[in-house]
């Protein structure tokens, strides 16, 4: 069944617009995930220790985890300990 060129163009444009509703496609093509990541896409980074912090564990554990606040060398962003 032959299609007209205008119909094929409309199909292509519609598919292009609909791709942006897909979460994985949007995340991969916008580049904001790398901008929001303090490491900038790297797996490791150097930093300067600002302070040592004790983070309490969640219930029912009563441990205190030893963590540090760090300022990254590559971009100067300050990272807090995650619990």
Automatic annotation (TrEMBL):
<keyword id="KW-0689">Ribosomal protein</keyword>
<dbReference type="InterPro" id="IPR012340">
    <property type="entry name" value="NA-bd_OB-fold"/>
</dbReference>
<dbReference type="GO" id="GO:0005840">
    <property type="term" value="C:ribosome"/>
</dbReference>
<dbReference type="GO" id="GO:0006412">
    <property type="term" value="P:translation"/>
</dbReference>
<dbReference type="Pfam" id="PF00164">
    <property type="entry name" value="Ribosom_S12_S23"/>
</dbReference>
<dbReference type="GO" id="GO:0003735">
    <property type="term" value="F:structural constituent of ribosome"/>
</dbReference>
<comment type="similarity">
    <text>Belongs to the universal ribosomal protein uS12 family.</text>
</comment>
<keyword id="KW-0687">Ribonucleoprotein</keyword>
<protein>
    <submittedName>
        <fullName>40S ribosomal protein S23</fullName>
    </submittedName>
</protein>
<dbReference type="GO" id="GO:1990904">
    <property type="term" value="C:ribonucleoprotein complex"/>
</dbReference>
<dbReference type="InterPro" id="IPR006032">
    <property type="entry name" value="Ribosomal_uS12"/>
</dbReference>
